[in-house]
Each structure stands twice: as structure tokens, then as C-alpha cells.
Amino acid sequence: MKIIPLWLHKLSSPPAFYRFAGRLRPWLFGSALLLGAVGLYGGLVLAPPDYQQGDAYRIIFIHVPCAWMSLFGYGCMAVAALIALVWRIKLAEVIAMECAPVGAAFTFITLVTGSLWGKPMWGTWWTWDARLTSELVLLFLYFGVIGLFNAIEDRRRAARAASLLALVGIVNLPIVHYSVVWWNTLHQGSTVNLFGKSHISGAMLWPLLLMALATHLYFFASVLNRARVGLLAVEGGKDWARNLIAESANA
Amino acid sequence: MSEPSSNPAPLLRVHALAFARNDEAVFGPLDFALDRGETLLVEGDNGSGKTTLLRVLAGLLPPSTGEIRCDGQAISRDAIAGRMVFLGHHPGMKSDLSPCENLAFLSGLYGTREGVSVDAALAQVDLSIYAHTPLRLLSAGQKKRAALARLTLLPGELWLLDEPYANLDRHGIELVNALISMHGARGGATLLTSHGAVRFADPNARHVRLELAA
Amino acid sequence: MATIAPARTETARAPGASAAARAFLRRELLLAWRRRNDALFPVLYAIIVAALFPFALGPEPQLLARISGGVLLVTVLLAMLPTLESMFRGDLEDGSLEQMLLAPQPLALLALARIVGYWLTTTLPLIVVAPLLALLLHLPLDVLPVLLSALLLATPLLALLGAVLAALTAGTRRSAILLALMLLPLAVPVVIFAAGAVAAAQSGLPHSAPLLWLAAALVLALVLAPLACAAALRIAIES
Predict the structure, then answer these.
(1) Between the CA of residue A80 and those of A83, A98, A166, what are the distances in Å?
(2) What is the pTM of this model?
């Protein structure tokens, strides 16, 4: 059982991680692309149209996995942020900060696709529905983390400050969701429930799950890819980074 | 740089201490010890990392490598807090408050040395007549004297003084030297930085020339 | 061993934590008194913002009465923003923050004293002037107690949250917008419950639940925010 912590410890050294992430990258991107293509084909072509929404529902094959990823990304960022703050591990700081833009992108896609879906469904681009509102607040949480990270000059201090903000945000997130739901009932907003108790048929489910898997893989691929660059930026003065840059210049 | 004194656990012991900012070495690795009654003068040019060293010793910055021991124990915030008086570049005082009010506040956080009052501390630095003047109306040298008054007032064996001579005239420099000698005589230790332009009077003080690490 | 003994007694002479917090609060109040004109600016700002709404929306009392609760809460929040931003900036610039961090006192407690001082000197005047603004915006008089209790619960909560963010941004330039961006998601539940209580009271619905939620959140923040603020200050000083 001691092998796993040892392996993790080795991996947390920047050059080892750089090589590991570099080897993993093509597989992750490749499988994400493949699964995404199959999932989209299944969702957009094979799955039957919805008896109520027609073809408009097909946006869920993008919208729903992205919505899951927006939360999953925040969770990943918070875990990395906690590790970064408690153990001051440079790699965790970099990963936490690279989770933020990827998660923010998924959140943004969720909002845009939700808005596109809202037009045929509710007849309006935007409605202060509890889910959409929470998602908007989530986007601002991401923006706050990214903004704070960029506002502080010292990279490591910036990462730690933004990590602390990410942790404050994760405490805040359930409170936001609860308060928004309460606010929605108070103001009697739109009561259209997108998923409600409707049952999803198998022909719609498997493409959705494939898409979810594909977005997860893409998320990891993207974060690892960004973390490699982030590590190079932070470790630019170290020997391994210099050697690497010299090698790539020669090649 | 210098051998530890005969006491098995000196007040401050620094081993292989180094600090790097964004992987660029600021100072170190450094080894030195500072015992009670001793004065250590850290010299170096501007930008050689003197201030950073002091901030690391004070616990404001985490060292990149190495360790700091206080009385033989690995340093922690609780171990050093209250045993140390830190004087940075900034006075650490509010410009809208008078020296008297500022010192009263500091003693509210740190406590006071036995038998010393705020008035006595201000008299020691020749600032009695400005005791109730807001700090922002005082000259740079007078502000520095107000900041120095905390050395007399607050308890703490270890003084960390960053450029204590800055902004001071000849009398002020003598005052700093007198304060340090007095502190050493009662068993306190002082670590101070200077860019070397000021002649330090105490013949017993040890000097450390801080070299900028490559 | 004999040499260590005086060190122990010197440490023991450090004042107790509550005495230190009192000293801190006394300094905050003294400072606020020296700069008492500064306390007027948030109040003036709030009056200006609140007075703009009737010009923008028209002076019909029914319309103003319906929106007044929410407008007042947002106004108070906006008036707090610029003062929050500079909460720790002065302390960082004049070295007071170093002295605060190095004191033999729990930093979280000192941070809490700072926040209490901020609330008493900056936010309380806003709450005092709130009934006047409510009058301008035709808030029904019987809702006023609910508005004031919502403000009394919401403003300390915002001050606690804002202090954490102010500590995080203390060392950055042009942090006003950044602070607003960071505060918005944290302020959403506070605004929802505080304005919700006023709205519920106005439409004759029970309004105690949102106020109790605010009170619960305040208790939680009173425990957690000073700790987070202390951690943020330690990061801020590492520059």
C-alpha cells in the first residue's frame, strides 16, 4: 500500500509531472474526442426526438455534461486549493489555478446553451431560474478566482490567495443554491422544470453518459496540458525547465 | 560564518537558511547563531536580501530551505511571538495617532517591559514634547524615533531591526547604539541590518556580510 | 536553565487576548474619531444612490414602495464596497500589519476586532440613515423594523465576508473592481435573504425565516471569517 503514496510523492515533483502529463496527454485528448464524437452521433442522430420538445431537447447532450463539469471543475479546484494551502505543494497550486479557466469555460458554455434552450422552451433568452442563476453565480466565483490570481504579481502568493478564495467559494456554493431556490419560490418565477420527473429513455441516456465521460476526459486533458505550461512558467529558472527549453530549441 | 557560543542552545540558531522568490535565490544558504548579549550586524548592498532575511527570521516569510531554531527548538509562530521586537522599514504606527497613543496600542498587544511607561520610553528617545502630536506632523527622523521608542517599551529579548539608522542624524545614530548596548547588557540580542554607510560603535558586535546568492 | 527563565516571564507578561482585542478596538475607534469626516462619505454616497432611483423610475409612491426594500439593501452594499477595499490597505502600507501579525496574540481575534471596529464606524452610520432613505422611497412604515433588523444582520455578515476579500486584495493595485467581482457571489445569499425578509413583510407573509437564516449565517461567519481573514493576511504580508 505504500507504493501509491510514494508514486504520488514522486509525481508531485515538477519534472516528473511534466513528463507524466506529456505522456498522458494524447491518450486523454484522443479518447475524449472519440467518445465525444460517438456520443454526439448517438445524441444528435440516433436518439429519437422528444415527444414534447421535438429536436430542441438535443442541446442537453452539450448542456448537461457541461453543467456537471462546471461543478466538477470547481470541486477539483477546491481540492487542489486545499492541498496547496495545507501542504504548500507547488504542483497543487498550479493545478488549482489551471482548473479555474477550464471550469469557467464549461460554466460559460452551460449558460449559453441554457439560454439557447430557453428560447424555444420558455420563449425568452434568459430566465431567473434557480439552476441558471446558481450557474451564473458560479461563473462569477470562477471569475473572482481568476481575477485575484492575475492581480497579484508573485505567482505563488497569487496562487495561494486565489486558493483561499476558492475554498471560501465552496463553502458559499451550497448556500447560494439554497438561497436562490428559496428566492425563486418567493418570487414565483418560472416553474418550468426541465428535468422534473420525466423519464429519460435508454436511447437518450447512453449518448448523454458518453458525453459526460468525454467532457471529464477533456477536462483532465486540458487541465494537465495547462498545468504543464503553468509549471514551466513557475519553474522557468530551474535546470530541468532550462534543459527542456534548450532541447526543444535544438529539435 | 561564526561558531555557536558555549551555550548549547543559543537564542537564535540559523542553519542552511535560504530564501528564493519565484525560484530566484534572494539570499543564502546562511548559517549563524546569535546568543544573549550579542549583536549581529548584517551588512550588504541594496537588494542583497537583508530585509528579506529579517522578514524570514521574524516569521513573516516562510524560508525556502533550512531551519531557524529559537532556544534549540524549531521555530513556530507561537514560540517566537512576544520574544521578539521587529522594526521594519515602515514605522508600524498610525499617522493620525500621536506617538503616545501608538505606543499605548502596541503595549496593549505586546505588553510592557517591567517598570517602563510610555512616557519613559518617549523620554528615552527625546520625543517627550511631541508625545501628543499626531505622527503625520512629525519629521521623518522624529517618526523613526517614535518607532524606536517601542524597543524600550516592549518586552522581547530578540530585536530585529531593519535599517535602524535610516533617516537619523548623528544624535539619533548614537541613540540607536546606546539602546542596543543597553539591550545587550541586560542579556538581550540584536540583529540589525545596515547598508554599511554607518559606523557601528559597539566593538563586540559581530558582522555578517550578506552575499547575494548566484 | 537560568537564562531561559527571564524569557518565560517576559512571554507571560503579554496581555491576555481579550485585553489585546480591546486595545485594538480602542485604536480603531480613536482612528475613526480622528478621521470622522471620512465616515460621512459612505452615508452621502448612499443618499445619492437612493435619491437617483425616483429620478430614474418616476415618483409614483406605489412603484417606489414596492422596490424600496431591495433598493436600500443594494445601496447599503454599494456604499460599503469602497470602504471595504481599503480595510487593510493602510495597515499594510504603514507596517501596522506586520506588528499585528507578530504580536503574541491570536491573529483571528485581532482581525475580528478590526471587523467589529469597521462595522461600528462605517456601517452603523449607514443603518442610522436608512430610515431617512426608507422615507424618501416610500417604504411602508410598518416594514421599517424588518428592514432595520435585516440590515443589522446583513451588514455585519457583509463586513465579515468583505474583510476576508479585502485581506486577499490588500497588496494589489486597482482592487476596487476585483473586490466587487469577488464579493458579488458571496453577497448573493445575503441580499436574497435580507431583501426577501423585507419583501415578505411587505406582502404580509411571515418574514422570520429569512431573518433567522441570516442570523445563522452570521454566527457561522463570525466563527469562520476571522480565521479565513487571518490566513489571507498571512498570505498578503508575504510580499
Answers:
(1) 5, 10, 10
(2) 0.88
Select from B19, B34, B52, B94 the residue whose CB has the most chain C CBs within 10 Å, as the one to mutate to test that interface. Answer: B94
Q: Are B48 and B209 in contact (CB under 8 A)?
A: no
CATH number at residue B160: 3.40.50.300
Angle at A212 between CA A208 and CA A216, to 5 degrees: 170
Least confident of A216-220, B11-15, B205-209: B205-209
B5 in a domain, yes or no?
no
Comparing C-alpha atoms, which of B91, B71, B97, B101 is closest to residue B166? B91
Q: How far apart are CA B94 and CA C35, in angstroms?
A: 12
**Which of A154, A165, A179 lies nearest to residue C188, judging by beta carbons?**
A179
Instruction: Report the domain count for chain B.
Output: 1
Å between B161 CA and nearest CA of chain C = 13
Top residue of B19, B23, B60 to mutate, by most chain A CBs within 10 Å, is B23
Contact call for A155 and B22, based on CB within 8 A: yes
* Contacts for A124 with CB less than 8 Å, ≥ 6 apart: A118
Hey, which chains touch B, using 3+ CB pairs under 8 Å?
A: A, C
Cell of residue B203, nine digits: 566593538
- Hey, which chains touch C, using 3+ CB pairs under 8 Å? A, B
Please compute Rg for chain C using Cα positions: 20
Cell numbers 559606523 correspond to what residue?
A: B199
Sorted by where each begins, the domain ranges of chain A are 24-191+205-250
Q: How far apart are CA B10 and CA B77, in angstroms?
A: 18
Return the SS3 of A3: helix
ipTM rounded to 2 decimals? 0.86
The minimal CB distance from B105 to the residues C27, C94, C95 is found for C27
**Domain range summary for chain C, segments of one domain joined by +:** 19-237
Domain range for B110 is 35-60+76-209
Please indicate whether, in this complex, the C-beta atoms of C103 and B89 are within 8 angstroms of each other: no
The tens-digit pLDDT sequence of chain A (251 residues) is 566 677 777 777 888 888 888 889 899 999 999 999 998 888 888 888 777 777 778 888 899 999 999 999 999 999 999 999 998 888 999 999 999 999 999 999 999 998 888 888 778 888 888 888 899 999 999 999 999 999 998 888 899 999 999 999 999 888 888 888 888 777 654 444 445 445 567 777 888 899 999 999 999 999 999 999 888 888 877 778 888 878 887 76
Asked if the structure places residue B21 within a domain, the reply is no
